[in-house]
Amino acid sequence: MTKVPLVDLHLQHEILADDIEAAIKEVIASGAFIGTAANPFVKKFEHEFASFSQAEHCVGCANGTDAIELALRALEIGPGDEVIVPARTWVSTAESVVLVGATPVFVDSCPTDHTIDPDLIPPAITSRTKAIIPVHLYGQPARMDAICSIAKKHNLYVVEDCAQSHGATFKGKPIGTFGDAGTFSFFPGKNLGALGDAGCIITNNQSIATKTKRISDHGRSGKADHDLIGRNSRLDGIQASILSAKLKHLPEWNKTRQQIAANYISQLQDLPIDLPKIGEEASHVFHLFVIESDDRDTLRQSLSDKGIATGIHYPKPLPHLSVFDSSNEYPVASRQANRVLSLPIYPYMPDQIQQHVIESLKAAFTPSP
Ligand SMILES: Cc1ncc(COP(=O)(O)O)c(C=O)c1O
């Protein structure tokens, strides 16, 4: 039986093996392993990713969770403050709010596109609200025009969680550049992934760039000068040079994801499932291809019987995880959590593998004779 993984990173790594090995060897020869301010590999990647994102600054850090935390710390958000986050996202979005001592306030999702529902943000704002963290979930840009105008009206910061949306745009503008800062994860399976943990913050604000850099390097302002309490969350030389080697391929990889998604959408449209709806004026980069079905678990089992791996991103709204334990209702997020199913999608996914997924889904809805 053909085994189909949800994501296959071997294919991109086989193609890039020589470039990646050369990049690693160069760092080993130079000895520039740690991402302190002078590390040339980190500086090079930061420069390249800022330019790719059309942002003035990029600050590398250890992972995407830290990236959010560093941005919030740089904005001096802390105890007593509230931060609005979507009810449906990966735990890091809300976890980082708690890590700085602030309180996450959850807002339900849009029924159509899984991102935060801007109409529900104003009722969640209180005198303690300091920021909104929209998440471009699955690669779909959140409605940044509506979100930024709410933020402006209420004098709130916006930190975009771009961990799943490298290269996506909204109204032609790269995500991560709408708010005060954009944060990225380079977890290996992301649209741009390192070979380990890595992340970054992009911003057009010099003060946020300087502060996040400093906090990520023990609050250091000089070789042995520390003028604020920081931590160690540096991007390392090896991951930075691997990311530089991979960044060149990101536009082509995103295009491939969009082609695979378009093929799924055209071939699955007659099935009784809900297919992803791409937001108006948004370019969706399909980190995940997520369908919805009332019979999600049966469908998942029938794909698994054919050797096809699927995912559930995510099985519970965040406020209903025991760590947050809210009794508030999030009807849209709860319905989505019970219905979502992620199908295999990754660059270089062979056509016949995608066809096998499509035929297997169709067969799941065909009554056996
Ligand atoms: C939406 C979102 N935010 C934040 C993160 C955190 O990234 P990392 O795993 O690099 O800490 C992830 C990673 O899965 C994510 O998907």
UniProtKB/TrEMBL annotation:
The active site is at 190 (proton acceptor). It comes from the Bacteria. InterPro entries: DegT/StrS_aminotransferase, PyrdxlP-dep_Trfase, PyrdxlP-dep_Trfase_major, PyrdxlP-dep_Trfase_small. GO terms for molecular function: pyridoxal phosphate binding; transaminase activity. The modification N6-(pyridoxal phosphate)lysine is found at residue 190. One of its GO terms (biological process) is polysaccharide biosynthetic process. Keywords: Aminotransferase, Pyridoxal phosphate, Transferase. CDD domains: AHBA_syn. Belongs to the DegT/DnrJ/EryC1 family. PANTHER family: 3-OXO-GLUCOSE-6-PHOSPHATE:GLUTAMATE AMINOTRANSFERASE, TRANSAMINASE. This is DegT/DnrJ/EryC1/StrS family aminotransferase. The lineage of its organism: Bacteria, Pseudomonadati, Verrucomicrobiota, Opitutia, Puniceicoccales.
